[in-house]
Amino acid sequence: MNEAERLVELIPRLRRYARALVGDRASADDLVQDTLERAWAKLHLYRRGTDLRAWLFTVMHNVHVNRVRAARPTDPLEDEMPELAQRAAQGDALLVRDLDRAIARLPAEQRAVLLLVTLEEMSYEDVARTLGIPIGTVMSRLSRAREKLRSMMLGQSAAAKLKVVK
Amino acid sequence: MNEEQQPSESELQAYADGRIAAEQRAAIESWLAAHPDDAERIETYRRLGEDLRARYNPVLEEAVPGRLRRVIGPMRRWHPVAKAAGWATLGGALGVLAGWQLHELRPAAPVASDSGALMARRAAVAHATYSPEVRHPVEVGAEQEQHLVAWLSKRLGAKVQAPKLDEAGMSLVGGRLLPGETGPVAQFMYQTTSGRRATLYVRAEAHGHRETAFRYARENNVSVFYWIDRESGYALASADLSREELLRIATLVYKQLEP
Q1: Burial class (CB in 10 A: 0-12, 13-18, 19+), A56
Q2: Domain edge (last residue) among A55, A75, A95
Q3: Best of A3, A5, A6, A31 to mutate (most B CBs within 10 Å, chain B)
Q4: How confident is the model at residue A160 (pLDDT cuts 50, 70, 90)?
Q5: Contacts of residue B52 in chain A, CB cutoff 8 Å?
Q6: pTM here?
Q7: What is the ipTM of this complex?
Q8: Domain range spanning residue B21?
Q9: Into how many domains does chain B fold?
């Protein structure tokens, strides 16, 4: 099987990741399309024998980051946002209706790590390579992403209980 | 490890992901047993992973939109043929030969079922079974081609055609219905005036959204070129023709059946 065929076979996985990353189906497929176009044009940069999946997800990550940056030029690095911002957001835990919403509220950097680890089931080393970050950063982002999701879920179930009681 | 020794946060994350070596696991579990809050927290992390997979894995089963499929290889309609034909000359442009060997060595990616190879094997067996037949090579002869095609299309639940291979010096002998992996499949038989035979194995593809390049397989002395083109999977088999002759015919078939 050549690279073109393997790229085609990876499309469903790109779509799964993109769907979780950006939410709605059409935008997710736009991201996949941009990613495939870029990967196809840059295939000569892929080193044969290395992990094509990791390479492709790197391409997707870069495309995504560029798109987000283009859309919101002044957005600070969300990962560096103070904890306070997240705490304040817990107040509207009632609005977190489902997993999609919770995922969408994670800082982009944490979301990427969490999804590559849990959905793609990539090794931590591959996640580090794919995102171009140290493995220690992978672990800390993973930890923070999970803790935020957990607190959102806790807020949600607390809210649900309140409703029942009342 | 003594029970007092607290696992690092990274170890706990890895534990939640089921990525802790067996010898470390016991120590972490005993620590968690003594720390129920952390145990609950790590269990929540683990379940979050399950929830995420349950939520998004169904995307893997969705049909891939055409606009995405068409990106890879702008000339995808003739790409499979071009690539196969280029094996000898283009060599490594896309690493087809190397890719093929890799394909043989590498376990199939979880997403990609290698049902194509299975189809090639079945086609080769069917060819070896029926092509030596002198008196009953087919169920329905070429003189009833219309009936044959209509019957097979009905049984496969997909439009089936018998390509014309006169250009390659082969004429239709007829066809038959065979049991396949997931339902009925069709086999058309062709032969040259000197009696050399090739069979075309056609099956309906459940997921109608895949296209593959030509692939070559050899089963005992039967050569097979096989490919999947959306609604149908094809495998052209022959024990009498050279690989080059067979590729030429496969190309003809591909061009004629292009929807």
Answers
A1: buried
A2: A75
A3: A5
A4: low
A5: 20, 99, 103, 114-115, 118-119
A6: 0.52
A7: 0.80
A8: 9-59
A9: 2
